[in-house]
Amino acid sequence: MNELERFKHLLEYFVAHLDYVQNLSTNYNGYSEYIQPLVESKQFVAKGLGYKGHNIQKQVAQWDTYANGRMCVNINPAYGSYKTKNTYINWETTGINIIANWKKDRVIGLMLVDYDEEEGWSNQACKFSVEELGLYKETDDINSNLKALFNEFNRRKESVDMERKQKSNHEKYKGVIELLKLNSNIILTGAPGTGKTYMAKEIAEAMGAEWKMVQFHPSYDYTDFVEGIRPQEDKSFKRVDGVFKSFCKHALESKETIMDNFEEVWAKLVDYLSENEYIDVPLLSNPKLNIRVELNEFGTGLANRTYPNGEYKKDEWINGKSKFFSKEQLYNVYRGLKGVPQGGHDNYRRAIVNYLKEKMGLVEYNTTSNKTNKPFVFIIDEINRGEISKIFGELFFSIDPGYRGKGGLVDTQYQNMISEGDPFKEGFYVPENVYVIGTMNDIDRSVESMDFAMRRRFAWKEVTAAESYDAIITDYSKFTDAQKTEIKQRMTRLNAKIDDELGRAYQIGASYFLKLKGNDFETLWKNYLEGLLFEYFRGERDAKQKVEELHAEYNNE
């Protein structure tokens, strides 16, 4: 059974369960298939919270597991009724839910809605009737509406996972990120297997950056990196941007204007409100108090309304009790101005603008520039394996942290061949939002190819073997606690011995232990560690004896 089929069964069970417990009637779709067997076997559980491990989850165990995690059924009636948002299917550990739409005492459809402890219920989407979803039809009848609900449910889970990972990594690499932002360029250095390349990617993602990676090698040169003359299919020759210059051009051209961003977010808001009745926006002065925002009766702006006795009725407008906000008024407040010249009601407008920042991607307004400043990270793996000065050429000046932007303008070797309209027509420079991360092993024989003048243009961060264990093994889900303990002990003993014999730069990083199968540490030694360590001592008379001593330390003999 594939995921869409399991999802369909889960929804059918959920609707049948609610119809049954709300009405105590057997005359509903899905009762005989999903509920009756449980009732007759006395295993039916009417209510409970699956995400808390309650027995209700056992009733959907055959349909609750997916690539993105587990979906939990939560039936939590309030005041004797199941017609409440407290009954829902959710992704475990998230506030992403599928809730029921009711008409009297019948479930007539399902929809997505998010829940946040501070924001409450919001961001409704994918509202379909039971019939539109094709529930209770043949199992292989998976229609486009059910696929749309499933895909959006998955997308929101992936978005939450990404945000959590980004937040976690930002905290995890906070010091390195601050160092990178301060210096624009950084090199991660350390022993082999310490996860420097992986760490560089994690840092870029934690910054919310767009990133690209290249690997330097002895044949890599200026024409690959900056620009060069390349043959074309018609047998002519043409100046072509190298990979770094192309990346910088992309970063420069991707700088989105503030107005473009606002227009995009406004269109997203209007589209959302065109399909949903309203959003609840918390007031900044009192976050526990929401204002209800929807499109106005003309569809040209936003409206905040009050209702008799607090009852919301769609399309029923109350003269004198509505506040209208145009796009222009919100844009004024976004820029720190009054919404309208005479002022008034800007507390509502500020609340809406804040909501757009937190929920819909509106960037902070930059008073010194009309551009957003999304970071771009260029990762150079094995940076010391190339001839750095030759590869960078005149960019030696431009990548200096003090000369980012047009202050570092230089003419490249083929400047006279750059065409009109090219952003670097007047000279090349590295945009302020471009950061460079290099990685290198201290013991690589070509390390001296990076001269001191180039070295001082980078900040340096050592990644130790001990740090690599914390970063790579500690949270690695495929290892048991016992395996992690054994790995740490063997790493610690082996690296202490290597440090005595050769120095810290020759220690073994934790990534080598990701190749471990079960508890077969001896195969790991023979296939991956022994050869590397022998290379360290190659040419020495007692090389074999020293490797055997390291082996004994590895095995605690």
Mind explaining what this structure looks like?
With 557 residues, the protein is an alpha+beta fold. It is built from 17 helices and 18 strands. α16 packs antiparallel against α17. The protein has four domains: 3-163, no CATH class; 174-255 and 373-463, P-loop containing nucleotide triphosphate hydrolases (Rossmann fold, 3-Layer(aba) Sandwich), CATH 3.40.50.300; 258-359; 466-554, no CATH class. The strands form four sheets. Strands 1, 2, 3, 4, 5, 6 and 7 form a seven-stranded antiparallel β-sheet that branches. Strands 9-16-17-8-18 form a five-stranded parallel β-sheet, sandwiched between helices. A four-stranded antiparallel β-sheet has the order 12-13-14-15.
Query: Helical proportion?
Result: 25-40%
CATH top level assignment of the largest domain: Alpha Beta
How many structural domains in the coordinates? Answer: 4
User: Superfamily at the CATH H level of the largest domain?
Assistant: P-loop containing nucleotide triphosphate hydrolases
Q: Please provide the count of β strands.
A: 18
Shape: globular
Strand content: 15-25%
| Secondary structure tally, helices | 17
Sequence stretches where pLDDT stays below 50 over 5 or more residues:
306-310, 317-322
Report the CATH architecture of the largest domain. 3-Layer(aba) Sandwich
Question: Layout of SSEs?
Answer:
Blueprint: H1 3-23, H2 31-40, E1 48-49, E2 65-66, E3 69-75, E4 88-91, E5 96-103, E6 106-116, E7 120-129, H3 144-172, H4 174-183, E8 185-190, H5 196-206, E9 210-215, H6 222-225, E10 227-231, E11 237-241, H7 243-253, H8 258-275, E12 279-282, E13 290-295, E14 302-305, E15 322-325, H9 327-334, H10 346-359, E16 376-381, H11 388-392, H12 395-398, E17 434-441, H13 452-455, E18 459-463, H14 465-473, H15 481-501, H16 521-537, H17 543-554
Parallel strand pairs: 8-17, 8-18, 9-16, 16-17
Antiparallel strand pairs: 1-3, 2-3, 3-4, 4-5, 5-6, 6-7, 10-11, 12-13, 13-14, 14-15
Helix pairs in contact: 3-5, 9-10, 14-15, 15-17, 16-17
